[in-house]
Write a structure and sequence with these properties.
Shape: globular
Radius of gyration: 20 Å
Largest sheet: 3 strands, parallel
Number of helices: 14
Order of helices and strands: HEHEHHHEHHHHHHEHEHH
Strand order of the largest sheet: 2-1-3
Strand content: 5-15%
Length: 335
């Protein structure tokens, strides 16, 4: 019969949340709201506080993977002389750009045109190169935040340097958009981020129960609002509903993997094009894949008394910006 999963009812609400994000994105131009390309671990709270709409081209790569269209887009990008050794996320976005430039139909959907491009180098170099190329080709304002690698800890020198970087970014955004950053508004956004991140962490912790009520493959689906809607009431409301449902599952004895026998850690990025296959495969073998640094990357804790300093401390501490020994320690902690 194969693996019979207990579907999470909040998934229907997730569809509405995703639809709302896409709708607000499409309406941004009409309302005069700037659209900024940002990376997944950017200090998006600043953009939210300045009424700048954050758009994540990495998510476009995820959608392309889920629709099994990455190879097609990658071939388009490579045919236009983009490097063959860039990651699938980047080549999906570059391929979409090439199709649009050529006036050709894109079965994945359109990649949103940015008014600003705001990357950081705290993630992979391929992502940074992708955003840099797009900044040059689209001729839109571009600002890259430089994150020194934090091996074991964030030194005072690194913190000071990064606070200056954020101050420069704020000045750039103010000059480019004509909007002033209201620090009281930024604190309000940080409060909402804290609430959503805390709820997301609670949801992820349901995987630690024996047997588990929530697993890595569930997290890959339900992580969307903590990325797209971080710093908003939308994310808070969604994770309240999801957490309550999982608590009910615990009371009712509903398991994420019926008959669970084995518990595994998944390292880094999901294989989006085969997510369902792996979910079914491990489920059929009574194996609960429970956690990953990838899905745990958005469990921030902000100090609203020091907005820029707390943004630095959280975003510079993401696992992709840490040294090898620190990454191993973080994995061990999750295990």
């Amino acid at each position: 019969m194969g693996f019979q999963r207990a579907e999470i009812k909040a998934a229907s609400m997730l569809k509405d949340v995703t639809k709302r994000y896409n709708q607000e994105l499409s309406e941004a131009k009409e309302k005069g709201i700037p659209v900024a390309w940002v990376t997944a671990v950017s200090p998006v709270e600043i953009m939210r506080a300045m009424d700048i709409f954050p758009y994540y081209p990495e998510n476009y790569g995820t959608i392309a993977g889920a629709k099994k269209m990455t190879s097609m887009l990658a071939e388009v990008a490579e045919s236009h002389d983009y490097p063959v050794d860039m990651c699938a996320y980047a080549k999906a976005g570059l391929g979409a750009f090439c199709l649009k430039e050529a006036g050709k139909e894109n079965p994945v959907g359109e990649l949103a045109h940015p008014d600003l491009i705001i990357p950081s180098n705290s993630q992979c170099i391929s992502l940074l190169k992708w955003f840099t190329m797009m900044g040059k080709q689209l001729q839109v304002p571009y600002f890259c935040t430089d994150y020194p690698l934090a091996y074991d800890e964030l030194t005072p020198r690194i913190k000071s340097y990064l606070v200056e970087q954020l101050q420069e970014m704020v000045a750039f955004l103010e000059e480019t958009t004509g909007k002033k950053l209201d620090y009281d508004r930024l604190r309000e956004v940080l409060v909402l981020s804290n609430q959503a991140c805390s709820l997301w962490n609670d949801v992820l912790d349901m995987g630690a129960l024996l047997p588990s009520r929530f697993n890595f493959f569930d997290a890959c689906i339900h992580m969307a609002p903590i990325v797209n809607w971080r710093g908003t009431q939308v994310a808070v409301d969604y994770y309240k509903v999801l957490k309550e449902e999982l608590q009910q599952r615990e009371q009712q004895g509903i398991q994420s993997i019926p008959g669970e026998k084995y518990r595994l850690y998944w390292d880094h990025i999901p294989i989006w094009s085969n997510l369902r296959f792996f979910s079914d495969y491990f489920g059929e073998h009574k194996t609960a894949v429970l956690c990953s640094l990838y899905t745990h990357s958005w469990t921030y804790n902000f100090d609203t008394a020091s907005p820029l300093e707390t943004l630095v401390e959280n975003y510079a501490s993401v696992f992709v910006n840490r040294g090898f020994e620190r990454r191993v320690a973080l994995k061990r902690d999750l295990m």
